[in-house]
Predict the structure of leucine--tRNA ligase.
Amino acid sequence: QEYTGIKIKILKWAPEAEKYVAGNSELEGKNIFLVAATLRPETMYGQTNCYVGTKIDYIFHQVNETDVFVTTHRAARNMAFQDLSVVPGEVKSLGTIKGSDIVGSLIKAPLSVYEQGIYVLPMENVLANKGTGVVTSVPSDSPDDYATLGDLQKKPDYYGINPEWVKDYKPVPIISTPKYGDLTAKALCEKMKIQSQKDRDQLALAKEEAYKEGFYHGTMIIGDYKGKPVEEAKPLIRDSLIASGDAVAYSEPERQVMSRSA
Ligand code: ZZB
């Protein structure tokens, strides 16, 4: 699986994370990024937040002289063999943190129209054994992200979040498809009567359909490749994110990827 690892900057850590980072001398002066693995780099304009699993352990690992990535340990190990470790073939851990301690951090995601910053939020279905365990959220085009953001907006107390972290964040029209208009995920969730992130089976179907429709029939309606088919824009946006230093290539051995049906 060939992912794009999106480098998300920290503008302000949540209190627990702040305490941890401030007390860790190895992290001092380093550029720390949450790294989200995506298959849809062309959707990065529409990022409204980023999800972590509250019970997942993340590690701070040093990828070069200046940069530290926050991912699952499993992703760090894969990255160590892909030129993404200061010690080739080895993970250089500078510490660990629980997802729940990162929730509420204010971050800056490359290309997102929400330039003032977006928040790290909890998602129930983040898989620890896929990607980096950090999932960037594009509710306009990802049904899972749309359903989860809806849950958080409807029941902030239940999910233990501050309503301010979700209140002003709406799905952004970024891709137009003939079947579903310019908010594909919203249209699909409504059509399939998906109420929440707990509707796993329906969400798996909606995701499949959103992928297909977006990739084969989508047109960019925002950004440098506005007017171009998604199929053409996708590799161009990926290359430009990597060239600007805002993303890295990250691939994952097939056998490690948990399949949808597993
Ligand atoms: C942004 C995005 C925008 C994504 C979109 C999808 C869509 P797949 O297809 O099953 O391999 N993801 C990445 N890592 C995880 C994880 N650990 N746990 C749960 N979800 C994860 O899944 C790849 C996609 O699943 C990734 O691409 C990421 O969300 C999420 F408009 O990144 B994506 C129709 C999908 N649209």
Summary: The mean pLDDT is 96. Residues 74 and 129 are 7 Å apart (CA to CA). Residues 2-256 form a domain with the Isoleucyl-tRNA Synthetase; domain 2 fold (CATH 3.90.740.10).
